[in-house]
Amino acid sequence: MRTRFAPSPTGHLHIGGARTAIFAWLHAKAQKGKFLIRFEDTDKERSKQEFVNSILSSLSWLGIEADEEPLFQSSRQTKHKEIALDLLNKGLAYSCNVSPERLEEVRKIQQQNKQQPRYDGFSRDLNLPHEEGNVIRFKMPLEGETSFEDKILKKISINNKELDDFIIIRSDGSPTYNFCAAVDDIEMEITTVIRGDDHITNTLKQINIFNALEADIPEYAHLPMVLSPEGKRLSKREGALDINEYKKMGYLKEAMINYLIKLGWTYKEQEIFSEEELIKYFDIQNVNSSAAKFSQKLLDFYNNYYLKESDLNSLYAYIENNFSLSDKFIQNPKKIEIIDLLRVSSNNIIQIIEELTFFHDDPELTEELLTLIKIDKDLLEKFKFELEEVNFNDKLLIGVFLDNFLSKNNLKFPVLGKPLRLILTGKPKAPSITDLLFLLGKKNCLERIEKFLKI
RNA sequence: GUCCCCUUCGUCUAGCGGUUAGGACACCGGGUUUUCAUCUCGGCAACAGGGGUUCGAUCCCCCUAGGGGACGCCA
Asked: Is the CB of A295 under 7 A from strand B?
């Protein structure tokens, strides 16, 4: 079994494309088949090397590697033309000299008559000699229907009258997508095509190319679209980000894959899957047939989960190697414990990094912050005095001290805890006070309390 | 407009003729932590509408509505 992911390098890889790639890759792994990559770069104007690199780096971040060298469609132009000419000679395609202007006119009239705008077959039986400047169109069957059994959507069919004679060779001599895709799928011996369901009409066209070329038709699985939270098509305007951006924001690839695969696929009532489990359980036929909306919150849930579950030292190394940490933090002997504490309540690594600034930078005592801090300064003075004697080497001792201090002074925890947290971190939301005192260290704690008392 | 596809809690979904319609996220509440958070327990919440078929429809068929997609000398 051989499948492929075939992006056009005209933009970055976003959520939708990444999901398609993951499904195809997983299907290959689950079936012990081959996963291939083909760049559909037949649009010379819009295809850019920059995007090839970007897509490849996104895929490699996700751990998706092709089993053979990626194929560039443009490198096969000569072959494509040759096959198109062959079709022309066999009478399965024909030369056409209808101008784009006339085409547009025809479409306008068809619209007005409430018909589907399409090429009307004007040159189909004219037998024009193929001259430079003409296009070559594929001869669609005029009767019957084209249908296939989709792995996900089940039977899909269309009346052949709805399909028009589409162009396979442009007037400049270059071959077009629908033609190249079919030819290359044959060449690459693709047995399973997995792509978005926006390709359904292309599939119907391509099946006819397969037939004309007397090739076996691959099996198809059309993935329902991923929609924006508003239910619109995912696009830059609708907030579709380059996958590389998620990496930069500190999403883990495991989270990304788990989220994306669960967007449409289920196995029993399991929510969390290791790569091994995915390969073991994945079955393309269990993919849901309806479109799904992208949910940042669910992605965050998965990321938080993997942040908490991943090996602490590896996570730290990953953060240090891929994100910019301040020298002060890197020199902090308790840095790993700090990360361990913060990851529990963070959705991504950037959030962790933003949170950890207070460990080495004193919080700014702004007006706003000061109004939030409500504490008796004499009490705080006393607390500071006693804190100086505490052994900070042991977190447990700090906890004991806190307990004693509270009960000795007959205080409820929040009376001291709330203002203390604000003074030490500048934030109302932070880890537990004991952890905070321990990880901040005695010197920092005393200094910050002192700083506040002096105001 | 024409054709194709889709329609279960707010969101992702399970269900494949008989279920108290299940799970997860989110949200809300209780408990733990003399702490906001974490953790834990619990709660809220859905079969788009109308016709059939059937003893019985979330499930099968038809219609309507809504959503998405395609309609390029883009891919």
From this structure: yes
Q: Which of residues 349-408 of A touch strand B (CB under 7 A)?
A: 403, 406-407
Q: Which nucleotide is closest, CA of A107 to its C1'?
A: B71
Which pLDDT tens digit goes with each residue over A279-330?
999 999 999 999 999 999 999 999 999 999 999 999 999 999 999 999 999 9
| 3 state DSSP class of A97 | coil
What's the pLDDT tens digit per position in A36-71?
Answer: 999 999 999 999 999 999 999 999 999 999 999 999
User: What are all long-range contacts of A205-210, with beta carbons under 8 Å and residues at least 24 apart?
Assistant: A205/A138, A205/A140, A205/A163, A205/A166, A205/A178, A206/A178, A206/A181, A206/A182, A207/A146, A207/A148, A208/A138, A208/A140, A208/A141, A208/A146, A208/A163, A209/A138, A209/A168, A209/A178, A209/A179, A209/A182, A209/A183, A210/A182, A210/A186
SS3 A193: strand
Within window 222-251 on A, which residues have Cβ closer than 7 Å to strand B?
224-225, 227, 231-233
Nucleotides in chain B with any atom closer than 7 Å to protein CB: 1-8, 10-14, 22-26, 33-39, 67-75
ipTM of the complex: 0.96
Q: In the 20-49 stretch of chain A, whose C-beta falls under 7 Å of nucleic acid strand B?
A: 40-43, 46
| Burial category of A454 from C-beta neighbours within 10 Å (exposed 0-12, middle 13-18, buried 19 and up) | exposed
How many CB atoms neighbour CB A285 within 10 A?
A: 9
> Is 0.90 surpassed by the pTM of this model?
yes
- Is the distance between the Cβ of A102 and the closest atom of strand B smaller than 7 Å? no
Pinpoint the alpha helices (H) of A310-410: 312-322, 327-331, 335-343, 349-355, 367-372, 377-387, 395-408
